[in-house]
Specification:
alpha+beta, 8-stranded mixed sheet, 34% strand, 6 helices, 182 residues
């Protein structure tokens, strides 16, 4: 089974395609974007093609691995969303990136909410996210969606020759459902 595109008010969440490679490389090489993420720089077309190829070769839902989804806005790749699921499929981790031009419009909030609806409808019990403590916008996004800050992992990630802290957020399916009925 492949990932079925999700349409929201303004977005299409869909599989990445070869046509997305140039945009993916462009925003993942943006200095501000990359400073809050863990990928190696420069972000090459070969890496973009590998991410795209990995998603097109995988079946949804992927358990025990990651699946990248395109965030399309106004017929343009605005960003991507990664979903990592535990081997049993009951827990997931999410990560998201938006192109600089797409920020500040509520697109990431809309995309993450749609993915949460999907994951919890598929029986996922718990979703977590890790955020660079300097990324206030991402922390606020998660809090708006009902995630709780569960702690800071100090010097938890070695990225580009430096140790970084990682703030962890979590949300349970029951909490998401209760929020949706308020």
């Amino acid at each position: 089974m492949t990932f079925s595109a999700i349409r929201t008010d303004r977005l299409v969440l869909r599989d990445l395609t070869d046509l997305d490679a140039d945009d993916l490389v462009e925003y993942r090489n943006d200095e501000q974007t990359a400073s809050l993420q863990d990928w190696a720089l420069p972000y090459t077309h070969d890496r973009a093609r590998a991410v795209i190829g990995g998603a097109t070769e995988a079946d949804w839902p992927v358990s025990g691995d990651w699946y990248q989804v395109a965030i399309e806005y106004d017929h343009r790749l605005a960003g991507d969303l990664g979903i990592g699921r535990s081997a049993d499929g009951l827990q997931a981790e999410i990560g998201y990136t938006l192109a600089p031009w797409a920020r500040g419009r509520g697109l990431a909030t809309e995309a993450v909410a749609a993915i949460l609806d999907l994951l919890f409808s598929e029986g996922v019990h718990r979703v977590v996210a890790g955020v660079d403590p300097a990324n206030d916008a991402s922390a606020k996004l998660l809090q708006r969606l009902g995630f709780r800050h569960e702690g800071r992992f100090v010097s938890a990630a070695f990225i580009r020759d430096r140790w970084w802290d990682d703030d962890r957020y979590g949300l349970l399916a029951d909490e998401w459902r209760a929020r949706s009925t308020d």
